[in-house]
Amino acid sequence: PASSLREPAVSSIIEHPSGRMVASTNARLDADPGRVAAELPERVGVVLIDGHNPALAQAALTLGVPEVDGEDPFALLEARPPHLRVLDGGSWKDWLTPLLGLVDVAVVSEDFAPPLLARVDGEQVAGFLRGFGITRVVRTRGERPVQYWWDGTSGEVPVREVPDASTMGAGDAFHGAFAWALERAGASDPERLIRFASAVAGVSVSSFGTRQWLASPALAELVRG
Fold it and tell me: What's the pTM value of the predicted model, to 2 decimals?
């Protein structure tokens, strides 16, 4: 309503042959953490957050975490839920810092640029996140190979070239597919997870719009394995 003090979250996306332009205010809606926590399921297989709304992200990241001693500043960081928590890091957000200690796997884009880094390359980003205890990092780079740093190992996974009708939402498709595969296949083989997520993202860009591809036979075949 016009009388509301809330600021709506608005995004404008313009697609053109050489890519797209996005103008976004990000999520500015207030969230009541207590109400959000009460509506979350008690058990989940994996949690995926993008950090656009810090209150929602905090509620999701602490889902399933045992009660801790409120006087110990590190207790919440050391307590672990029975599921993995994944960060969709499309870009850096200033309020991410206190949330990073609650993340188990970070899947970031080339645009994810933490502050104070001399240069934003994959090694530096992975090292920065490792300082928060995140030892599993995946970094997408558009059509170039996906980089990963995973429990002491590292490597790259080539991206298959596919004809694209629209790249809108491809990153979200990658992150969602990665989380889905992580819950089902576990964390032992990062290259398998990346190949699956890349293939799903490839299907998502094959048609215009954000939902039509969900009915694609190619997607059904990928899910069946």
Answer: 0.84
